[in-house]
Write a structure and sequence with these properties.
- By secondary structure, the chain is an alpha/beta fold.
- The chain has one domain (33-56, 75-231): P-loop containing nucleotide triphosphate hydrolases (Rossmann fold, 3-Layer(aba) Sandwich).
- It contains seven helices and ten strands.
- The chain has helices at 47-54, 77-87, 103-117, 126-136, 151-163, 181-196, 209-212, and strands at residues 5-16, 19-31, 36-40, 62-67, 70-71, 88-91, 169-173, 201-205, 217-222, 225-231.
- The strands form two sheets. It has a six-stranded mixed β-sheet. A four-stranded antiparallel β-sheet has the order 2-1-4-5, covered by helices on one side.
- Strand 1 and strand 2 (19-31) form a beta hairpin.
- The model has no long low-confidence stretch (mean pLDDT 91).
- The structure holds adenosine-5'-triphosphate.
- Residues 14, 16, 21, 23, 41, 43-49 line the site of adenosine-5'-triphosphate (ATP).
- Keywords: ATP-binding, Nucleotide-binding, Transport.
- It holds the Pfam family ABC_tran.
Length: 241
């Protein structure tokens, strides 16, 4: 199978004045379509930086990212934006919901933006939205604005927003960070179903080793490098939360 995401000798250095931080260096991996991969590692090990580089939200300093056979570096900014909109669903640590729109409005606008990058325009899949909202426990909250929702509810709206466009790649940064066990389970199951049933490729960053076990494969980062690769259990283990 041709991998959908390939990182080759990936490096990212942040520079501010004379200070340099090598947030990523020499990172190599390939992810198959439909695979669910968890990335774990201590704070500051480069997980979020990897998320931003893989999503084309920031440029690598060295090496390459190839998404569905296309090297990011060979695309113009406009082409990269188009590819990101059409292919990638983001779940950010800080939700990034628009404050003036309701939860539903936030979901609808994400769908409209994804359509801007798509070859063929698709209507919003109301059936999928109803299913996601029900499973995430936000069905009754869709007409609320973000400031009327709890942090956990905002997180779940952001997850519905990312999944409703059925992106071929889902990048999730700490998607269960603000959730209790019940809601965390629902989110993990949903990501697993996205990968198993809909063949979406899921890359999830998490601090939680038990949550990471839901994945097919777990990559561990330390000091900007991948230091370990292991198989996940395919289910979350909830022994410590
Ligand atoms: N915009 C930035 N400018 C300068 N240094 C940065 C920037 N963003 C991250 N860093 C540094 O790069 C390194 C990797 O940070 P990153 O946020 O990728 O780690 P992380 O593993 O996601 O951490 P956490 O688990 O705490 O979110 C850290 O040393 C961090 O201080």
């Amino acid at each position: 199978m041709t991998p959908i995401i390939v990182a080759q000798n990936l490096g990212k250095t942040y520079r501010s004045g004379k200070l340099e931080v090598n947030a990523l260096h020499g990172v190599n991996f390939a992810i198959e379509p439909g695979e669910f991969v968890a990335i774990v590692g201590p704070s500051g090990s480069g997980k979020s930086t990897l998320f931003y580089v893989l999503g084309g939200l920031t440029n690598a300093t060295s090496g390459s990212v190839t998404i569905a056979g296309t090297d990011f570096a060979k695309l113009s900014d406009a082409e990269r934006t188009k590819m990101r909109r059409a292919r990638i669903g983001f779940i950010f640590q800080r939700f990034n919901l628009l404050p003036t729109l309701s939860a539903l409005g936030n979901i609808e606008i994400a769908h409209d933006i994804a359509n801007l990058g798509a070859e063929t325009k698709k209507p919003l899949d109301h059936e999928l939205l109803a299913h996601l909202s029900e499973k995430l426990g936000i069905a009754g909250r869709l007409d609320h604005r973000p400031n009327e929702l709890s942090g956990g509810e905002q997180q779940r709206v952001a997850i519905a927003r990312a999944l409703v466009t059925r992106p071929s790649i889902v990048l999730a940064d700490e998607p269960t960070g603000n959730l209790d066990t019940k809601n965390s389970d629902a989110v993990l199951e949903m990501l697993r179903d996205a990968s198993r049933e809909l063949n979406q490729t899921v890359l999830m960053i998490t601090h939680n080793p038990e949550a990471a076990q839901i994945a097919d494969r777990i990559l561990t980062m330390r000091d900007g490098q991948l230091v370990r690769e292991e198989k996940g259990a395919g289910r979350a283990l909830h022994t410590t939360y």
